[in-house]
Design a protein that fits this description.
Number of strands: 11
Order of helices and strands: EEEEEEEEEEE
Helix content: under 10%
Strand order of the largest sheet: 1-2-8-3-6
Oligomer: single chain
Largest sheet: 5 strands, antiparallel
Structural class: mainly beta
Distance between the termini: 47 Å
Strand content: over 45%
Radius of gyration: 15 Å
């Protein structure tokens, strides 16, 4: 049973638990959709799996090129992993495990970049957007055309 509201139209529903000028703490309840590859702007953080199993894919980014996948790992309940400043990753629930994660970021996330690998583009999103390509044009702060591996 989810601890927080469910939203099956997005990869996750997030609830802000605490925020000040130095950090923010969020809990996320995951659907069966995966989030887009993204960074956390100028923030770094830690993610802990509270329930279920997370599939975390880490990417390498070089300049304005399309991110390339480095590795994928499964993180089970109780495991914590680090999200480095400007590090790019994507997450999803592994199987039907009822994934719930706790996220601590310092400073609070601003200027997050979300990648659309099919469009060969990135988008800096507004602070109220999650790790997905925004449907609402207001949440699209800046769109960036990327170079593909063939370019």
């Amino acid at each position: 049973m989810p601890l927080i509201k469910e939203d099956r139209s997005k990869p996750y529903y997030r609830k802000l638990l605490y925020k000040n000028e130095h950090l923010e703490l969020l809990v996320m309840n995951w659907s069966d959709l995966e989030c887009a590859p993204h960074d956390h702007g100028h923030s770094f953080g830690w993610i802990q799996v509270i329930n279920g199993v997370s599939r975390n894919t880490v990417y390498k980014v070089k300049g304005e090129a399309l991110p390339s996948e480095l590795f994928t790992e499964l993180k089970r309940e109780g495991k914590t992993f680090f999200a480095p400043r400007f590090g790019v990753h994507k997450m999803a629930e592994a199987g039907n495990t009822g994934l719930i994660t706790l996220h601590l970021y310092a400073p609070p996330i601003t200027g997050m970049k979300v990648y659309d690998l099919e469009k060969c583009a990135a988008c800096v999103v507004s602070d109220d957007c999650g790790a997905w390509w925004p449907d609402d044009l207001r949440q699209q702060v800046k769109e960036i055309k990327l170079k593909s591996a063939a370019d």
